[in-house]
Amino acid sequence: MPCGRITGTGSGLPERVMTNADMEKLVDTSDQWIRERTGITQRHIASDEETTSSLAETAARNALSAAGLEPGDLDMIVMGTTTPDQLFPNAAVLLQSRLGIGGIPAFTLEAACTSFLYALSVADKFIRCGEARRILVVGAEKLSPLVDWTDRSTCVLFGDGAGAVVLEADDEPGVIATRLHADGQYRDLLYFPAGVGRNFPRVSDSRIQMKGNEVFRVAVKSLGEASRAILEDQGIGRDDIDWFIPHQANVRIIHATARKLDMPAERIVISVDQHGNTSAASIPLALDLAVRDGRIQRGQLLLMTSFGAGFTWGAALVRM
Ligand code: ACO
């Protein structure tokens, strides 16, 4: 049975970089506090013209080029995002139109920061059942309009961006396994308070709400458990993992999770320092960074794990 193998990765980041010094001008914070508590030094913030689908287009074109493919070679687009340009058409269809291809299925999944792992898992299933052979899988977000730029406890955390991978059918894995979870009992710890069915007229003046300490605690527990479970399921030891690519929300969450797994620091890919928390884009952006700087090599084994609002969480084992 074929399974999905990543043959190209790509990033799309807004031009504007906001440093911690820029944040100091907005709210009562300091570079030292942000670095010590989160590990973040800068984040990219989209302009009015840059949208989730425009950032996704850049990431997609870079991933296609790395895979040696043209947009017309694709037979499906699966996109994870919490911040589509508009409610409909869905963001993957807008991306499809930007890429100048029509006719193939294109759809969007929303599982907050875990959206990319959900999208990767679903795309891999389409390949395994023989319904697709070349799928573009994207995680993209423009979170900045949802951020309260007067709330120092959240505004320093988030950034905009997109990451993409091309998943191609291959007899050798590839995506070895994925595990997905969700538990809505935690819905009030991290949420956006407006939508079609709730506070609809107030969508544009609502902002992300978060109980940071509680999110932190559950995140470390869930990321650790999902990672350990997928390793046990597959009979793979921690020492077999070449690179650990966790969701990039906070460097302290990453290190606390790695300690639970006994994962050495030199095998962790970290990009939260440069990108902040880009939600669905965080794992594919970190992956692309480490592929392009030569750390991640063909044949290596990756453990990815993510956590987001809901809560949603999950893990993936991927052979490059
Ligand atoms: N600058 C300076 N001081 C600050 C800032 C800031 N930007 N933000 C908060 N503080 C202050 C608080 O007001 C508080 O002051 P007080 O003691 O006088 O009341 C003090 O710092 C400590 O605040 P805490 O909230 O306890 O700080 P903590 O160490 O928990 O760090 C943080 C806060 C960074 C938000 C942390 O809880 C965290 O990272 N939580 C997880 C958040 C997260 O990752 N969310 C998303 C995950 S899921 C997803 O990606 C969608």
Describe this structure as you would to a colleague.
Helix content is 33%, strand content 23%. The longest helix is centred in the C-terminal third of the chain and has 23 residues, at 212-234. The mean pLDDT is 97. It contains ten helices and 13 strands. The chain has two domains: 3-172, Thiolase/Chalcone synthase (Peroxisomal Thiolase, Chain A, domain 1), CATH 3.40.47.10; 176-319, Thiolase/Chalcone synthase (Peroxisomal Thiolase, Chain A, domain 1). The protein is α/β, with parallel strands linked by helices. It starts with a strand and ends with a strand. Strands 1-7-6-4-5 form a five-stranded mixed β-sheet, sandwiched between helices. Strands 8-13-12-11 form a four-stranded mixed β-sheet, sandwiched between helices. The protein binds acetyl coenzyme *A (ACO). Residues 29, 33-34, 37-38, 112-113, 152-153, 156, 190, 210, 212-213, 215-216, 219, 249-250, 253, 277, 279, 307-309 line the site of acetyl coenzyme *A.
Compose a concise summary of this entry.
It is built from ten helices and 13 strands.
Give a topology summary.
Layout: E1 3-12, E2 17-19, H1 20-26, H2 31-38, E3 42-44, H3 52-67, E4 76-80, H4 91-99, E5 106-109, H5 115-128, E6 134-141, H6 152-155, E7 161-170, E8 175-182, E9 190-191, E10 209-210, H7 212-234, E11 243-246, H8 251-261, H9 272-275, H10 282-292, E12 301-308, E13 312-319
Parallel strand pairs: 4-5, 4-6, 11-12
Antiparallel strand pairs: 1-7, 2-3, 6-7, 8-13, 9-10, 12-13
Helix pairs in contact: 3-4, 7-8
Bound molecules: acetyl coenzyme *A.
